[in-house]
Amino acid sequence: MKKVFLLLLVILAPFLSRAQQTDTTTHNKVGDLAPNFTFHPDKEKTASLADYKGKIVVIDFWATWCPPCRMELPRVQKEIWEKYKDNPKFALFAFDRGEDWDKTLPFKEKNKYTFPMIPDADKKIYNLYATQYIPRTIVIDESGKIIYQSMGYDEKDFKELLTLLADKLK
């Protein structure tokens, strides 16, 4: 019995210690004010996050080459954008991390996405929130506070995101 316990301990130890580690790749935590930034929703316009105060803002960081992003984006289109795009309290911006319009627009058109997909070629916006890993989703409330963050794509986190949005955008 003692040998079985020790064997289990040896097998599980790396997972248990990892679960207790702090995520050092995320600059902000839930409850923090979201860092303000300017961006170009299209090639001509300039906007800032502060322009959307009073709305629930979903920020999604992704890239054309990222397999989990390619799994998440169709759901963002169907289950978030199509449901809330006409809600005056809602905004969504999907920032293509490390790529420019020459990659972002063809990808958007090929996949028939209609939500705002914006290049973050120099990662200036991404670097305000994190150091690595995509997809990343951040939800900011009407007062500018971060109320949700996820890293990667999995069913449980996406359902949590949908539940939060349904509650906030009634």
TrEMBL record:
Pfam (any one): AhpC-TSA
Protein name as catalogued: Peroxiredoxin
PROSITE patterns per UniProt: THIOREDOXIN_1 (PS00194), THIOREDOXIN_2 (PS51352)
GO molecular function: antioxidant activity; oxidoreductase activity
Signal sequence coordinates: 1-19
InterPro entries linked: AhpC/TSA, Thioredoxin-like_sf, Thioredoxin_CS, Thioredoxin_domain, Thioredoxin_ResA/DsbE_sf
Domain of life according to the entry: Bacteria
Keyword Signal: yes
Magnesium recorded as keyword: no
Record keywords, A-Z: Redox-active center, Signal
Ranges where the Thioredoxin domain occurs: 28-170
